[in-house]
Write a structure and sequence with these properties.
It comes from Solirubrobacter pauli. This protein is an alpha/beta fold. It has twelve helices and 13 strands.
């Protein structure tokens, strides 16, 4: 059986230094019928010219619409049944596209799956699949661990990283892909949860490898986007019984996060995020209705099963390690799951 064709989509923004190596590695792995698209987010440098010289089809946008919007523009410009989104600064190992493409046939109900993303050098994990806490926070799974510790076979993950992400077009169109309003951050977590709600699986193909230098600290504006987008995801994707059961904890956590933000130096961004969520609430509720209409049998249970009881992100500092905090999280999550289970009993 012939493997499906794919469109590789790279969103560039000031990426002239990284593009030549990334595009050369991708072009070497394309099959007849594949497409290589670079969406240039109104770069001020020579990204578009370099992409054309490397043989890519270039879409030049008039303004920077972010990663999510750029990916949507690339997807809309192609017809391939598989969409591979790849960061412009990834080093793509030989055989990666083949391994990702094969997963489409081996896992026909997966809507999205990622490559194993490693740190530079390829010996340590950047992400082996994202982890999603029930508060809506997500982080890179197995960060810093040895790649040898990653299960080598295809397996499911809570959410698939957008750094090296394959999405089945059928699934992308069913749930309407990334939400451009997110601009950047959390769009991959949001998409993964919405896919689960719609009955699709989300996984990783560990034999596909890309290297990606990762730095969590990218300025205070990142915290604004993370917190705003987290709430949009919770409001949109969480089934009604789950959202109601978690609402007291979600609101209580806001007080704790204000203290964490003040200590971390990003309190203004946290307050801006809260204000942005409140202003956008009518839109977020309309979006929720659209998202919930995609729900399929078993989707609610799949989404709940993808959430973690422990806030053990390595990027949140010592608050995640406090024993009482961990016990409280686990206890409340157990309560919420019982409520959700009873609602569907």
């Amino acid at each position: 059986m012939a493997e499906p064709s794919l469109a590789t989509i790279v969103v560039a923004y000031g990426s002239e230094r990284e593009l030549p190596q990334t595009l050369a590695a991708l072009r070497a792995q394309l099959e007849p019928g594949d497409d290589l698209v670079v969406v240039d987010n109104a770069s001020a440098d020579a990204s578009a010219e370099i992409a054309r010289a490397a043989g890519a089809r270039v879409i030049e946008l008039e303004r920077n619409v972010g990663f999510a919007g750029g990916c949507r523009a690339g997807a809309e410009a192609t017809t391939a049944p598989l969409l591979f989104f790849c960061n412009p600064d990834c080093e793509v190992a030989p055989g990666t596209l083949s391994a990702l493409r094969a997963a489409a046939t081996l896992k026909p109900r997966w809507g999205a799956w990622q490559a194993l993303v490693t740190l530079p050098g390829g010996r340590e994990v950047n992400t082996s699949g994202g982890i999603t806490h029930w508060l809506g926070m997500g982080w890179a799974g197995a960060y810093g661990a040895s790649v040898d510790a990653v299960e080598p076979e295809l397996h499911e993950v809570s959410f698939a990283s957008g750094a090296a992400l394959m999405v089945r077009r059928e699934a992308w169109e069913e749930v309407d892909g990334f939400d451009a309003a997110y601009f950047m951050y959390c769009e991959d977590l949001d998409l993964s949860l919405r896919l689960r709600l719609a009955g699709w699986g989300v996984g990783i193909a560990p034999q596909a490898r890309v290297e990606h230098a990762y730095d969590f600290d990218k300025g205070s504006y990142k915290w604004f986007l993370l917190e705003r987008n987290r709430w949009w995801t919770v409001i949109g994707a969480y089934p009604g019984p789950l959202l109601l059961a978690l609402l007291p904890a979600l609101l209580g956590a806001e007080l704790a996060l204000l203290a964490v933000a003040a200590r971390g130096g990003w309190l203004p961004e946290k307050l801006r995020a809260q204000a942005a969520v409140l202003r956008s609430l009518p839109w977020a509720l309309r979006r929720r209705r659209r998202v919930q209409r995609t729900r399929r049998a078993g989707g609610e249970q799949a989404l709940v099963g993808a959430l973690s009881p422990a806030l053990d992100s390595p990027f949140l500092g010592p608050v995640a390690e406090l024993g009482p905090v961990r016990a409280l999280q686990a206890g409340y999550w157990a309560f919420a799951r019982r409520v959700v289970g009873g609602a569907h009993g």
